[in-house]
């Protein structure tokens, strides 16, 4: 009788563990970023007809992780960003060993905190800067209700960034 109870508990615990694992996998899939971020090189090569949305990110930054998994994982946020902007991510793991181009961009726009989102036109003019954690509604509101972003497309290779 004790063996039967032990066997039942083992089966129950295994089933509970399997269900918990499946639920965790579903949650993980749901929390993956939906925004397709590009590099600076891809931005220069593409020269899209819309402003760049530059995300300054750091692997050690907790608010950056929160934005990745709570904000950029949402379809509505990804849709707004990808329809209106060319999304670019600059990852700053170590500001002392940052490539020169990224370092110059951070200095030119005064980026000192993470996360920072910067909307930049093709002339290199910062149209908007958002610093710190923003939830999905705050981010969408800031990016959509802002005046229509004016930009000037320059020929490839003359990108001010």
Would you write up a description of this structure?
The structure is a single chain. This protein has helices spanning 2-30, 40-46, 62-71, 75-84, 100-109, 136-144, and strands at residues 52-57, 86-91, 116-120, 126-131. The chain is α+β, with helices and mostly antiparallel strands. The protein has two domains: 1-30; 40-144, Glutaredoxin. Strands 2-1-3-4 form a four-stranded mixed β-sheet, with helices on one face. A hairpin with a 5-residue loop joins β3 and β4 (126-131).
> Strand percentage, roughly?
5-15%
Q: What best-fitting shape do the alpha-carbon axes yield? A: globular
CATH architecture of the largest domain: 3-Layer(aba) Sandwich
Would you tell me the structural class of the helices and strands?
alpha+beta
Radius of gyration: 21 Å
**pLDDT < 50 stretches:** 18-27, 150-159
Strand order of the largest sheet: 2-1-3-4
Order of helices and strands: HHEHHEHEEH
Q: What is the first-to-last residue Cα distance?
A: 74 Å
Give the count of structural domains: 2
The CATH superfamily title of the largest domain: Glutaredoxin
Number of strands: 4
Q: At the third CATH level, what is the topology name of the largest domain?
A: Glutaredoxin
Helix % is 40-55%
Q: How does the major sheet shape up?
A: 4 strands, mixed
CATH class of the largest domain: Alpha Beta
How many individual helices?
Answer: 6
- The overall average pLDDT, rounded, is 81
């Amino acid at each position: 009788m004790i063996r039967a109870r032990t066997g039942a508990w083992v089966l129950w615990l295994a089933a509970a563990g399997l269900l918990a694992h499946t639920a965790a996998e579903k949650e993980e899939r749901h929390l993956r970023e939906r925004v397709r971020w590009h590099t600076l090189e891809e931005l220069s090569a593409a020269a899209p007809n819309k402003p760049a949305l530059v995300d300054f990110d750091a692997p050690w930054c907790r608010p950056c992780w929160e934005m990745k998994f709570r904000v950029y994982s949402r379809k509505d946020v990804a849709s707004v960003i990808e329809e209106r902007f060319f999304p670019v991510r600059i990852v700053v793991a170590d500001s002392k060993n940052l490539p020169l181009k990224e370092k110059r961009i951070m200095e030119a726009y005064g980026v000192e905190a993470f996360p920072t989102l910067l909307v930049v036109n093709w002339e290199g003019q910062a149209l908007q800067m958002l610093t710190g954690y923003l939830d999905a509604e705050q981010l969408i509101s800031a990016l959509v209700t802002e005046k229509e972003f004016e930009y000037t497309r320059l020929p490839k290779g003359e990108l001010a960034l």
